[in-house]
Amino acid sequence: MLLTEFSPLAAIATTPAAIKILQGLDINDVSIWVPELLSGMQGTKKYTNSLKNHIADLWQTHRAFVFCLATGAVVRLIAPLLQDKSTDPTVVVVDESGKFVISLCSGHQGGGDELARLIATQIGGATPVITGSANSLSLPGVDILGIPFGWRRGEGNWTGVSAAIARGENIGVIQVAGSTLWRNRLPERHPFDFAESSHDQGQIFITPYVATSSPTIPTVNWHPRVLWVGIGCERGSSRELIETAIREVFKEYGLAEDAIAGIATIDIKADEVGLVEFCQSRNLPFKTFTADVLKTITVPNPSSVVEREVGTPSVAEAAALCAGLEMLDTRDGFPKDNCKEEGQLLVPKQIFRFPMPNSQGAVTVAVAQGEKEYIGRHGQILLVGMGPGKLSQMTPAAQIAVTAADAVIGYGLYIDLIAPLLRPGQIVEALPITQERQRAQRGIELAEWGLNVAVISSGDCGIYGMAGLVLEELQSCGWDGKVPNIEVFPGITALQAAAARVGTPLMHDFCAISLSDLLTPWEVIKKRLEAAAVGDFVTALYNPRSQTRTQQLGIARDIFLKYRNYNTPVALVRSAYREDEQITLTTLEQLLPESVDMLTTVLIGNQSTRNYGDWMITPRGYLGFGNH
Ligand code: SAH
After folding, report:
1. Which pLDDT value is given to residue 627?
2. Which of 22, 196, 451, 469 could form a disulfide with 172 if both were Cys (CB 3.0 to 4.6 A apart)?
3. What values do phi and psi take at 454, rounded to 5?
4. How far is CA 223 from the centre of its chain?
């Protein structure tokens, strides 16, 4: 699902080894094309004419190509077809031994660099070969940095500015709208000059205004979608009249139509045909407000005539401002407080009433700048379990989720452990360990805005992890179960990791108990310890002890001693699979709570568990207790 931007994708193989490699791809809507001689292998389609003609046939209809073929051959095949990097499909080449994945064409605009990284992970441990200069500078490409926020590329000399960045020149950034999150993880030495100076040798404008260009240095324009166009119109105003009115206003005020977030008006116009058609043709959101809400907004040009007619002194200005206000209280539809509306209104109301052939009516237009850009797509939350802490113990699917996400949120230590998966330009937010709920809320906030957000937990995200907190939080804010979309990526949980390091302690029925009484009453925990001990479950204790919570582990040990032999094997596994891993095998009687900390999982064997050398072994069955 994450990879829909590359679909349909054509993969090409000309040898059995190449076919095998491409069969490892886990991407929707992929066709593996093979020559007639090799046809018949599972999941492949054959081409019958020359490969050159076949690629030419597929070129217009496919978004991406993955060749498992010599790079030289690929270059010759696609050379006659290449036109422009903004429209050409993405091309990635995999070598036949599956060691390298080369991002060949449409690297960062077409997402080729990302596709190369994802394929490298999917086919197992290949090295992505990415040669675009932005990548080597650890910078987001200048022509993609606004994509996560739904910004639109305006006019500009994109190649000129990219080249200036590659040469290490100073680039002035003039940002008057849109999120600044793209700046948060720039490397220490970067070319961006946020104070604008005469030394700048290129410029990036991030603005709702139209192309600004300098005659001397290369300039590009990004347009965050922050403009809400408030419309008031007479019944029957045509789509053409509305379109013309907006175009004229934008021209006069120097605003970019690319920066339009959406259209706003009064609720009685919700079915106004011209307006609905205009929004549909541009794929714009259409917000409507009741007169009761609109009249609470202070506007520069109220009208008593309008007030008598529809019950609010302003439609266009008030609706534009209302739509732009992030503070709308969703419970009753009223703005929470009356904030500084005047400053946000870029265009006070303009009235158009010119007779056009086939058009009738009158249109009033006002434009306000919203607090936050409209991204224009649904975000998702990827709940990712990263395993115990070593990258090789994290599933490929979870690795891909982290690399593909627009934003990654997690506890700082975990973010460090997965650092090699992060891309330049990704939003990365590390929060302290105690702030799990804030992490969940922040993830939801970003996803509701439109970003794909990976929320990271150690181990499995659904076992004492972030997944539960995120879903609970969503539930409490009235989530419909669909938007934002959720995907859960499981990981190896601490009890499995700890068990693997000491042998096979979990070979029979087992349970996990967390000794943390932060969210669970201690009485409940004690009852479960008692039940596990009575039931002879192998037991994994999570959160066994912290600096302030020191008593619980001793009590747990004493409960187990009531029902299990004093020499029952116990393993203390600290930081499994991390650099500072420590493993201690001991027994229930000798278990010293002081030697255990928050990074440890305690595994208590059942009555049949034995130590053997450095191993802890629980038999598959209970010998001597009936049938096996
Ligand atoms: N979601 C995690 C558990 C988080 S609770 C998972 O599925 O593993 C935190 C507890 O997990 C710690 O107190 C410790 O008991 C255990 N833990 C997490 N990572 C560990 C590791 N690498 N080695 C040993 N124990 C670990």
Report:
1. 44
2. 196
3. -95, 125
4. 21
| Encoded amino acid at 25, one letter | L
Bond from prior residue into 16 cis (ω within 30 degrees of 0): no
CA distance 382 to 85: 30
Contact 407, 454 (CB under 8 A): yes
Q: Is 516 in the pocket of ligand 1 (CB under 6 A)?
A: no
Classify 227-369 by CATH class.
alpha beta
Is residue 18 exposed (0-12), middle (13-18) or buried (19+ Cβ within 10 Å)? buried
From ligand 1's centre to the CA of 396, what distance in Å? 20
Fold that domain 495-617 belongs to in CATH:
3.30.950
Instruction: Parse the chain into domains and list their residue ranges.
Output: 4-131, 147-223, 227-369, 380-492, 495-617
Query: Which residue lies with its CA nearest to atom 11 of ligand 1?
Result: 542
The per-residue b/e assignment along 260-294, b for 16 or more CB within 10 angstroms, e otherwise, is bbbbbbbbebeebebbeebbeeeebebbbbebebb
Is 495-617 in the same CATH topology as 380-492? no
Range list of H helices, 283-386: 291-294, 304-310, 316-324, 341-344
* Residue 141 in contact with ligand 1 by CB distance below 6 A: no
Instruction: Judge if the beta carbon of residue 262 lies within 6 A of ligand 1.
Output: no
What kind of architecture, by CATH, is found in domain 4-131?
Answer: 3-Layer(aba) Sandwich (3.40)
First-to-last alpha carbon distance for the chain, in angstroms, is 45
Note the pLDDT of residue 340: 45
Alpha carbon distance 177, 312 (integer Å): 30
- CB of 387 closer than 6 angstroms to any ligand 1 atom: no
- How much distance in Å is there from the Cα of 33 to the middle of ligand 1? 45
Q: What are phi and psi of 339, to 5 degrees?
A: -90, -175
Buried b / exposed e over 451-487, threshold 16 CB at 10 Å, is: bbbbbbbbbbbbbbbbbbbbbebbeeeebeeeebebe
Half-sphere exposure of 625 (CA within 13 A, CB side): 7
Structure confidence at residue 357 (pLDDT): 62
Tell me which CATH code domain 147-223 carries.
Answer: 3.40.1390
Which CATH fold would you assign to the domain 380-492?
Answer: Cobalt-precorrin-4 Transmethylase; domain 1 (3.40.1010)
Cβ-based neighbours of 465, under 8 Å, separated by 6 or more = 383, 385, 457, 458, 459
- Asked whether 572 lines ligand 1 (CB < 6 A), one says no
pLDDT at 330: 45
Helix count (H) and strand count (E) of the chain?
19, 32
Q: What is the mean pLDDT of each run of 10 residues along the chain (628 residues)?
A: 70 93 84 89 88 93 93 95 86 93 81 83 85 76 92 92 89 94 90 86 95 84 97 91 95 97 96 96 96 94 94 96 71 48 80 70 92 93 96 93 94 91 91 86 95 97 96 95 95 98 97 94 97 98 94 97 97 96 97 94 97 95 54
